């Protein structure tokens, strides 16, 4: 089966490259042609940039195109759009929403951010207080509230938003999911500086922002269920591509070790080899998760991937700072910057050490991930709940 | 020092085939019947009603003694992936069978050296043991530790800490006057004395072998022996990782099951977050161990990336198995300390497996060379 798909895809890639020589074709034009050929994300349906094929074949397409010098769609600039908004819109959107949003999202013409967390709702995402109220006269929704830690809000054209539409039912039931225009009046984005010195994320204030009825995703009150699609996609997208041995943080540390024989100690050697083995185990596990997804049998291993990744990134980057000795005490740049993309392994060791601290917080903390594994995978009892049957408006806050 | 590039990792198929899934089901069914907990526990008291039936179920009913024996010698002609499936189930069941030591380690060595006659015997359910000390990870490390010599036409000496006995046939590597050689010695030959110790892991006994026998013609000599030994030890180490992954998975499942029932403070103990988080971490480790073991088996089957894959598998899976067993003992509370509970059997097996074919430290040292992460030189620091 898979061999047939592969050779079929190879023919399509060849045809695309013949009709649009990357050397002479304008970038945007090439990307549009790639979309039309169904080679944008092969696991999406035909007509929406895909061919309905197994997901893991995308890596093969990407490799072939990269080898031919074709431009990519700068996926690192729109990670939330590609990794989280797109699968959620595909799963829960109307045909009109598919038509309107997926193509510009994939082409990178519209950048997305995620308006989930709030000052009072982080780990407890179902506690969001941002209100969306229908305006009977226009059919629009009127949104008021405050979001926080919003990565890339300063670059974004659209946001996936979870807001409260019914305060009179228990908290999980009263949420709805919206696609909100970030350039609309009433959206105010203020940078929030991180411990690295840069400001990847923001505070977002929403004051009487109007969202057209056509930009409600799914049904009113379905927001919690849909948000879970988003969060699951986030976990899956981490194990989404094959990575070579010694890629990422472990490669940085290994290079540092090789470059500085004079700084080696036996204790550090032991830690390094231990972490190298663990990184290889994480890489192999990610590769198996990918293979399971491709045959349509997603294993629950996916939920453990991020947990392991975060711990390893933190231990490896910490070791690197120590290995570098006095050089590890230098920092490259504290100037406030607003990066276009998140670069976990870019810059210097000190930056990597600090940025890695976010890995166990963003996208669900490691504690919350452990709860998810324990309860949903291992079937252990949930935490005692005081808010289960209480209307949201009556909860103490 | 010349830096070599680190070996690239091939893209290996890590999912089980239908054949492997069926094989797993049959092995699990046989072991469920033949390895009851009470019988396993009684092993350390000297009563053995379990090894015979368990091996007979695997070797005769399922034909697994001959799993790796080529078809032309009467075997199944299967490879490391299938062997890993069987080993994983043996790890789960803590089965007291010579599958790893005879059907994998000794058999791989005999296959490499083309020992037709011995292979035919193994295919019929006979067993063989490699006479090297436990902890041997490579032909190099064995050469430093063996005590058997050939002189005056006799093979004489003692090897301590041999696993895989009782067995019908001894495979004895020696460093003779003409370099390495491998001798085959029937265990019932005159001048063979095997004394079996009380072992930490009663499900896999440890013996001392004393030899004073006619040397005869060795099965093989020279570099051929070294290469075949390295290959067999790597195969066994990769397959052992699957045993360790299976053992760890059992520990996790039993612990989750126990903590889902045990009540204290008016609640199911498994609902306490401190324990849920430990189990979630263990779940992540166990899942990784299974993937890493599958990767080693696939590497062995494809004969690509074998040294790195096996070293990673041993360094990782040994640690996970011991950690899983230690967590299982702790989280079973007082029950975990009892003789009757099956949990301690896994702890003992896991700790013994930890040293069986090279410790994680030894495999990490090997990796340091393989992937160009050299240790500090004496003058550094
Ligand atoms: C770099 C970065 C980028 C981010 N980008 C975005 C974004 O783009 N969009 C967005 O919506 N959000 C974003 N976030 C927010 C992120 O999702 C939240 O920070 C996270 O979910 C944790 O919520 P909190 O910060 O409110 O912590 P809290 O929920 O207040 O948690 C505080 C501590 O308590 C622990 N804790 C809480 N509840 C439990 C429990 N039940 N059991 C055990 N421990 C518990 C937590 O693990 C944590 O250690 C980003 C965060 C970071 C760090």
Topology, pairings included?
The complex is a heterodimer of chains A (397) and B (381).
Chain A: H1 2-19, H2 27-36, H3 57-67, H4 79-92, H5 95-107, E1 112-115, E2 131-134, E3 141-147, E4 158-164, E5 175-181, E6 187-192, E7 201-211, E8 216-217, H6 223-238, H7 249-259, H8 266-294, H9 302-323, H10 349-356, H11 366-377
Parallel strand pairs in A: 1-4
Antiparallel strand pairs in A: 2-3, 3-7, 4-5, 5-8, 6-7
Chain B: H1 18-34, H2 37-42, H3 51-61, H4 80-93, H5 99-112, H6 116-123, E1 128-130, H7 139-143, E2 148-151, E3 154-163, E4 169-176, E5 179-186, E6 192-196, E7 206-214, E8 220-221, H8 223-259, E9 263-264, E10 267-268, H9 273-302, H10 306-331, H11 343-356, H12 360-370
Parallel strand pairs in B: 1-4
Antiparallel strand pairs in B: 2-3, 3-7, 4-5, 5-8, 6-7, 9-10
The complex binds flavin-adenine dinucleotide.
General description of the model:
The complex is a heterodimer of chains A (397) and B (381). Chain A is an alpha+beta fold and 397 residues long. Chain A has three domains: 8-72, no CATH class; 112-235, Butyryl-CoA Dehydrogenase, subunit A, domain 2 (Beta Barrel), CATH 2.40.110.10; 239-363, Butyryl-CoA Dehydrogenase, subunit A, domain 3 (Up-down Bundle), CATH 1.20.140. Chain A has eleven helices and eight strands. In chain A, strands 1-4-5-8 form a four-stranded mixed beta sheet. A four-stranded antiparallel beta sheet of chain A has the order 2-3-7-6, with no helix packed on it. In chain A, a hairpin with an 8-residue loop joins strand 6 (187-192) and strand 7. In chain A, helix 6 (223-238) crosses helix 9. Chain A is globular. The model of chain A has no long low-confidence stretch (mean pLDDT 92). With 381 residues, chain B is an alpha+beta fold. Chain B has three domains: 18-126, Acyl-CoA dehydrogenase/oxidase, N-terminal domain (Butyryl-Coa Dehydrogenase, subunit A, domain 1); 139-222, Beta Barrel (Butyryl-CoA Dehydrogenase, subunit A, domain 2), CATH 2.40.110; 225-370, Butyryl-CoA Dehydrogenase, subunit A, domain 3. Chain B is built from twelve helices and ten strands. Chain B has helices at 18-34, 37-42, 51-61, 80-93, 99-112, 116-123, 139-143, 223-259, 273-302, 306-331, 343-356, 360-370, and strands spanning 128-130, 148-151, 154-163, 169-176, 179-186, 192-196, 206-214, 220-221, 263-264, 267-268. The longest helix of chain B is centred in the middle third of the chain and has 37 residues, at 223-259. Chain B is globular and about 75 Å long. The model of chain B has no long low-confidence stretch (mean pLDDT 94). Chains A and B meet through helix 7, helix 8, helix 9 and helix 11 of A and strand 10, helix 9, helix 10 and helix 12 of B. Residues 113-114, 116-117, 122-123, 149-151, 201, 358, 361-365, 367-368, 371, 383 of chain A line the site of flavin-adenine dinucleotide. Flavin-adenine dinucleotide (FAD) binds at residues 113-114, 116-117, 122-123, 149-151, 201, 358, 361-365, 367-368, 371, 383 of chain A.
């Amino acid at each position: 089966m898979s061999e047939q798909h592969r050779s079929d895809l190879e023919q399509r890639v060849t045809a695309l490259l013949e009709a649009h020589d990357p050397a002479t074709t304008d970038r945007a034009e090439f990307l549009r042609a790639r979309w039309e050929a169904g080679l944008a994300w092969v696991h999406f349906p035909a007509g929406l940039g895909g061919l309905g094929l197994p997901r893991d074949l995308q890596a093969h397409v990407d490799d072939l195109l990269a080898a031919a010098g074709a431009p990519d769609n700068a996926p690192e600039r729109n990670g939330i759009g590609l990794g989280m908004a797109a699968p959620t819109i595909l799963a829960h959107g109307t045909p009109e929403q598919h038509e309107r949003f997926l193509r510009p999202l994939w082409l990178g013409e519209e950048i997305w951010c995620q308006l989930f967390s709030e000052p009072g709702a982080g780990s407890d995402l179902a506690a969001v207080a941002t209100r969306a109220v229908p305006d009977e006269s226009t059919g629009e929704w009127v949104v008021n509230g405050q979001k926080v830690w919003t990565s890339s809000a300063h670059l974004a054209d659209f946001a996936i938003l979870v807001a409260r539409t019914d305060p009179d039912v228990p908290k999980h039931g009263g949420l709805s999911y919206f696609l909100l225009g970030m350039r609309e009046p009433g959206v105010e984005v203020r940078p929030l500086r991180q411990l690295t010195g840069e400001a990847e994320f923001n505070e977002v204030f929403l004051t009487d922002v109007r969202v057209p009825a056509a930009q409600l995703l799914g049904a009113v009150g379905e927001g919690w269920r849909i948000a879970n699609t988003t969060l699951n996609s986030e976990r899956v997208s981490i194990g989404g591509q094959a990575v070579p041995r010694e890629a990422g943080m472990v490669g940085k540390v290994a290079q540092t070790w090789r470059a500085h024989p004079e700084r080696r100690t036996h204790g550090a050697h032991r830690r390094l080899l231990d972490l190298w083995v663990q990184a290889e185990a994480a890489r192999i596990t990610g590769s198996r998760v990918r293979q399971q997804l491709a045959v349509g049998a997603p294993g629950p291993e996916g939920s453990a991937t991020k947990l392991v990744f975060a711990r390893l990134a933190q231990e490896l980057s910490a070791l690197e700072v120590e290995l570098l000795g006095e050089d590890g005490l230098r920092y490259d740049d504290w100037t406030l910057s607003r990066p276009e993309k998140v670069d976990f392994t870019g810059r210097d060791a000190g930056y990597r050490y600090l940025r890695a601290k976010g890995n166990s917080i963003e996208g669900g903390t490691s504690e919350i991930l452990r709860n998810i594994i324990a309860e949903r995978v291992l079937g252990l009892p949930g935490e005692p709940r005081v808010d289960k049957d209480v209307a949201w408006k009556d909860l103490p806050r | 020092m010349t830096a070599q590039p680190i070996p690239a990792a091939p893209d290996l198929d890590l999912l089980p085939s239908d054949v492997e899934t069926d094989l797993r089901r049959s092995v699990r069914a046989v072991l469920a019947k033949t390895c009851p907990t009470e019988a396993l526990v009684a092993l350390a008291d000297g009563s053995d009603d379990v090894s015979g039936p368990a091996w007979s179920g695997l070797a005769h009913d399922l034909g697994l003694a001959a799993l790796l024996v080529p078809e032309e010698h009467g075997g199944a002609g299967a490879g490391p992936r299938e062997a890993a499936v069987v080993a994983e189930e043996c790890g789960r069941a803590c089965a007291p069978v010579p599958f790893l030591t005879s059907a994998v380690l000794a058999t791989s060595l005999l296959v490499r050296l083309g020992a037709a006659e011995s292979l035919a015997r193994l295919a019929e359910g006979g067993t063989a043991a490699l006479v090297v000390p436990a902890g041997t990870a490579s032909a190099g490390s064995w050469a430093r530790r063996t005590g058997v010599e050939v002189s005056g036409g006799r093979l004489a000496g003692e090897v301590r800490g041999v696993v895989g006995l009782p067995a019908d046939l001894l495979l004895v590597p020696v460093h003779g006057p003409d370099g390495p050689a491998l001798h085959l010695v029937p265990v019932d030959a005159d001048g063979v004395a095997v004394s079996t110790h009380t072992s930490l892991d009663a499900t896999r006994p440890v013996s001392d072998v004393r030899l004073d026998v006619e040397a005869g013609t060795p099965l093989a000599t020279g570099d051929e022996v070294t290469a075949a030994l390295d290959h067999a030890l790597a195969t066994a180490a990769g397959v052992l990782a699957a045993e360790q992954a299976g053992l760890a998975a059992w520990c996790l499942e039993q612990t989750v099951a126990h903590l889902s029932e045990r009540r204290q403070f008016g609640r199911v103990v498994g609902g306490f977050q401190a324990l849920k988080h430990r189990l979630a971490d263990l779940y992540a480790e166990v899942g990784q161990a299974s993937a890493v073991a599958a990767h080693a088996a696939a590497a062995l089957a494809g004969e690509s990336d074998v040294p790195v894959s096996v070293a990673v598998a041993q360094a990782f899976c040994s640690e996970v198995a011991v950690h899983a067993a230690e967590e299982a003992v702790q989280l079973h509370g007082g029950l975990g300390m009892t003789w009757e509970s099956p949990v301690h059997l896994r702890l003992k097996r896991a700790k013994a497996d930890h040293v069986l074919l090279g410790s994680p430290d030894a495999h990490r040292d090997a990796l340091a060379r393989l992937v160009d992460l050299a240790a500090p030189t004496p003058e550094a620091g």
